[in-house]
Write a structure and sequence with these properties.
alpha+beta, 7 helices, elongated, Serine Threonine Protein Phosphatase 5, Tetratricopeptide repeat, 278 residues, 4-stranded antiparallel beta sheet
């Protein structure tokens, strides 16, 4: 019976040790963002310096770099977008970088889930490029990191920081185009919420204040239960148009509804409009 017992013990030891996770030198990371109508994801592996000279050393100048380790960095965007002046269709792409001491180049490459720069660099797969100016960091960054910054309804940047270098890659979104298409489709059979959302886009996105007022008017007309915020944002659009008396009446109506619903935000914003109009 000793042999089966020994085998069992060995099996248990093997299973137990298999539960210990392997500490990766370049851990996988994924960051996500929703900007207006667009879903954006950036996935990459994060190598560390570990005492090495990175740019101009481990990663030589004037050579295309995969921008990380292991599997190539993958940018996924749910709507059409721009890198520089080039429009790129929605989809998943590899972001490659080519460093030099004075300027870098970013490439969007139409191939994903590969490891390293292709041995045969295919120019036909380069969908867009942009030239970037490197920035010097005040303190070194041990582990490579990418972050989303400068986020708005129609713009975002991906920032790469490693060693003493910071690179900012700017992207433009097609939010206005996407919103207009969605609005046109939705308004063929809209309810109050649809008109309200369209009004918010016109107010905050396209800044078409006349259109914002018109859509908030329709939202209020269809609203079964009056809400302070439709009157509030309508008043903001009227204020932008310089229609002070109408804006004042709208803000007063918004304030009353905000007080009834006990909304501190609605009350403070309505009072702010009234104060500006005094």
């Amino acid at each position: 019976m000793r042999l089966p017992i020994l085998s069992l013990l060995l099996l248990l030891c093997t299973c137990s040790s298999a539960q210990i996770p392997y500490l990766q030198l370049s851990p996988y990371s994924k960051t996500e963002l929703k900007a207006a109508t667009t879903d954006i994801e950036f996935a990459y592996a994060r190598p560390s310096m570990r005492g090495r000279k990175i740019f101009g050393g481990l990663e030589p100048w004037n050579v295309v770099w995969r921008g990380g380790a292991n599997r190539n960095p993958r940018l996924t965007v749910s709507e059409d977008f721009f890198l520089g002046d080039t429009r790129v269709k929605a989809g998943a792409y590899t972001l490659f970088l080519k460093p030099t001491p004075t300027q870098w180049t970013a490439y969007l490459y139409d191939e994903v889930d590969q490891y390293g720069v292709p041995e045969k660099w295919d120019e036909t797969k380069i969908l867009a490029t942009i030239t970037l100016q490197p920035e010097q960091l005040q303190r070194p960054i041990e582990t490579l990191r990418y972050t989303f910054e400068e986020i708005s309804n129609d713009h975002f940047t991906i920032v790469m920081e490693w060693e003493n270098t910071r690179i900012v890659v700017p992207f433009k979104l097609t939010t206005e185009e996407q919103m207009q298409a969605k609005i046109a489709k939705t308004l063929s059979g809209p309810d109050s919420g649809d008109y309200s959302n369209a009004g918010m886009h016109a107010l905050r996105g396209s800044k078409d204040y006349e259109q914002a007022v018109a859509w908030f008017d329709k939202a209020i007309e269809l609203d079964e239960t009056p809400s302070y915020w439709e009157h509030l944002f309508r008043a903001q659009a009227l204020e932008k148009l310089g229609r002070k008396e109408a804006a004042r009446k709208g803000a007063e109506r918004a304030l009353k509804l905000a007080q009834e619903s006990k909304s501190n935000y609605g009350q403070s914003e309505s009072k702010a409009i009234l104060e500006r109009l005094e």
